[in-house]
Amino acid sequence: MKKVDTIEALRMARATLAGPVGFVPTMGFLHAGHLSLVERAKAECASVVVSIFVNPTQFGPNEDLEAYPRDLPKDLAMLEAAGVDLVWLPTPEVIYPPGFQTWVEVEDVTQPLEGAKRPGHFRGVTTVVAKLFNAVEPDRAYFGQKDAQQVAVIRQMARDLNVPVEIVVGETVREPDGLAMSSRNNYLNGEEREAATLLIRALRAAKELYAQGERNADAIRERMRAVIAAEPLARLDYVSSAHPETLVELETIDAGALLSMAVFVGKTRLIDNLVIGTK
Ligand code: PAF
User: Fold this and answer.
1) Residues with beta carbon inside 6 Å of ligand 1?
2) Which CATH number does 2-170 carry?
3) Known catalytic residues?
4) Rounded to the nearest whole angstrom, what is the distance from the C-alpha of residue 25 to the centroid of ligand 1?
5) pLDDT digit string (tens) for 119-171?
6) Residue nearest to atom 3 of ligand 1 (CA)
7) From the alpha carbon of 125, which atom of ligand 1 is closest?
8) In testing the pocket of ligand 1, which one of 29, 30, 31, 58 has its CB within 8 Å of the most ligand atoms?
9) Which residue of 5, 52, 62, 99 is most buried, as measured by CB atoms within 10 A?
10) Residue 64 near residue 41, CB atoms below 8 Å
11) How far apart are CA 233 and CA 248, in angstroms?
């Protein structure tokens, strides 16, 4: 497994790879969710590139950039064992050199949900992902369904900017009790970790209501809110039942609707989602 940091070294190493090239962009502190994307990329592509970069521009001023968990030696060992060909470890100066002043902004689909609660977040995500795509030039790029709005935003960006990449979405990988894997789960203490199952419980309760015939989106959202309200360690940020591509809130729920939420468990903000009509 080759490791590079500069763009020049990345481009030289990329040029030696057999195609199609699969790319898994990450912020490190890898878990089974990331590895499932790497495995899928391995199965579908001749070569796999992974980037590890904790992108400062997608964190708000009061968010967890400094505290964001990092463990590079462990990440590299996991990627080596997974058979990754090339790892790109850019520094902030490589991505945002002095004088940097160009940003990529996607409009409507970034406005609700995460975009409304985390101003500037998606501007940071789309800018860094556009830069990563330009440098790596992957044939396929792999993202997790857990960040459903990020997927919709990146798809929109790739379409609008004619980026010749296929966006592939991997299912959310869950702990045995249903908690979606996330590097931020590391912040939870024992009590909070137990409470954190409320996200999947709320989503499953809403799905169950749908299975019983409920189609009113307000009623579905209310069911999710009720599960969250019953947990003293939790504070709701938002619940949503929206169109999976536009993220516009629905009045009536049908197969394909995206149920999603953000909840603070203690001080940790967790997100999760489920698409109606899937497992
Ligand atoms: O999902 C993530 O880990 C990040 O948002 C990404 C896509 C690597 C961009 O920094």
Assistant:
1) 25-27, 55, 58, 125, 128-129, 147, 150
2) 3.40.50.620
3) 34
4) 6
5) 999 999 999 999 999 999 999 999 999 999 999 999 999 999 999 999 999 99
6) 26
7) 9
8) 58
9) 52
10) no
11) 29
Q: Which CATH number fits domain 183-276: 1.20.1560.10, 3.40.630.10, 3.40.50.1390, 3.30.1300.10?
A: 3.30.1300.10
Calpha distance 235→253 (Å, rounded): 25
Instruction: Locate the ligand 1 atom nearest the alpha carbon of residue 144 and give its number.
Output: 1
Picking from 27, 1, 15, the residue whose alpha carbon sits closest to that of residue 136 is: 15
Q: Can you give the residue ranges of every domain in the chain?
A: 2-170, 183-276
**Cβ partners under 8 Å of residue 192, min gap 6:** 233, 265, 266, 268
Question: Concatenated DSSP letters for the chain?
Answer: -EEE-SHHHHHHHHHTSPSSEEEEEE-SS--HHHHHHHHHHHHH-SEEEEEE---GGGS-TTSSTTT----HHHHHHHHHHTT-SEEE---HHHHS-TT--------GGGSSHHHHHSTTHHHHHHHHHHHHHHHH--SEEEEEGGGHHHHHHHHHHHHHTT---EEEEEPPPB-TTSPBP-GGGGG--HHHHHHTTHHHHHHHHHHHHHHTT--BHHHHHHHHHHHHHT-TTEEEEEEEEE-TTT-PBPSB--TT-EEEEEEEETTEEEEEEEETT--
pLDDT band at residue 277 under the 50/70/90 scheme: confident
pLDDT, one tens digit per residue, over 20-65 is 999 999 999 999 999 999 999 999 999 999 999 999 999 999 999 9
How far is the centre of ligand 1, averaged over its atoms, from the C-alpha of 125 (Å)?
7
